[in-house]
Design goal:
Blueprint: H1 2-16, H2 18-41, H3 46-51, H4 66-73, H5 85-115, H6 121-130, H7 136-149, E1 151-153, E2 156-159, H8 168-192, H9 196-204, H10 209-220, H11 222-238, H12 241-247, H13 256-263, H14 271-301
Helix pairs in contact: 1-2, 4-14, 5-8, 5-11, 5-13, 6-8, 8-11, 8-12, 11-14, 13-14
């Protein structure tokens, strides 16, 4: 048996180190090349883009900031008359509450389901987890109807219209509802893996559930909270479907993705401005990811093993 293991060890070592490194490096390069080309194109004029490929800059470097100036502050085509800066601010206003609300609710719910035992808690947890199989597209129209006209059974109005369609709250609420099942599931697995002795010692010292949650669970759950915050931030920031549905065509609350969709223009002549707009859009998500990435893997894997 030992001889058999020793025969397999070199091959396993090659595939787990050198071969894996080469494969990952090749995939990374192939994945990065189109992004690099898009980034370089964002600093080139329209005439240069139409005349030569993006790789021509390595032979004849020539760059300009006109695309970014036009995209940020407006000018040029009709679709860029006001720039994307107001829409960038709208995306920030939409995304930050849409990340905070589900995190707060899911963290409290996960603690209750993990450490406050009551009849039906397991069934409730599995029911919440099962809600992830409901397609988001199926719930858009019913939720929009709830916001605009309420719920009726025949001629009887059961729930009045919430009146939040076309407002920021009308986008925060759907994002919060769609995020809660996954958030509760991830945070529950992490919080449930915390040492039972620590919880029992806190109870013996007279701490109630609120104090345990605030003084023990929250500080220890930072990796899981940060991991889900990255997921939720990227999902909300890059979302177009939910924003288009619940903004109800109101440009005052439209996120940056709605504006980017119109940058190309009717005949595709404005795609040069889209390159600059795309990199403005990914700037904030990159800052968030690299700020929290040290918690990312730890938060995802914690709770998977004891």
């Amino acid at each position: 048996m030992a001889a058999q293991l020793s025969n397999h060890t070199p091959g396993r070592k090659i595939f787990s180190s050198r071969f894996a490194t080469i494969v990952v490096s090749i995939i990374t390069v192939l994945w990065t090349i189109p992004t690099l080309g898009l980034f370089i194109s964002s600093f080139r004029t329209g005439e240069d883009i139409y005349a030569t490929g993006w790789w021509h800059v390595f032979v004849e470097p020539k760059f300009t900031l006109a695309n970014y100036r036009e995209v940020l502050f407006g000018g040029g085509s009709e679709s860029l008359s006001d720039g994307i800066l107001p829409y960038f601010i709208n995306s920030v206003v939409i995304t930050i509450p849409a990340v905070i609300f589900p995190l707060v609710l899911a963290t409290m719910a996960a603690y209750c389901l993990a450490w406050v035992r009551f009849r039906g808690s397991d069934f409730l947890f599995f029911f919440i987890f099962a809600l992830q199989v409901v397609p988001l597209q199926m719930s858009l129209v019913p939720i929009l109807q709830l916001f605009t006209s309420g719920v009726h059974i025949g001629s009887v109005q059961v729930i009045p219209a919430l009146g939040v369609a076309g407002k920021f709250a009308g986008i925060w609420l759907p994002h919060t509802m769609f995020a809660l099942p996954l958030a509760i599931y991830l945070l529950h697995n992490f919080i449930a893996s915390l040492p039972r002795e620590l919880m029992e010692a806190a109870h013996v010292d007279g701490a109630n559930h609120f104090k345990i949650f605030r003084m023990i669970v929250l500080p220890l759950s930072i990796p899981a909270i940060a991991a889900f915050a990255i997921f939720q931030f990227l999902w909300v920031w890059n979302d177009l479907l939910v924003a288009l549905t619940f903004a109800s065509g109101t440009q005052e609350i439209a996120p940056i993705n709605v504006k980017l969709a119109s940058l190309v223009g009717q005949y595709g002549s404005g795609w040069t401005s889209l390159t600059a707009g795309a990199f403005i859009t990914i700037a904030l998500p990159l800052v968030v990811f690299f700020s929290l990435q040290r918690y990312f893997v730890r938060g995802l894997l914690a709770g998977s093993v004891k």
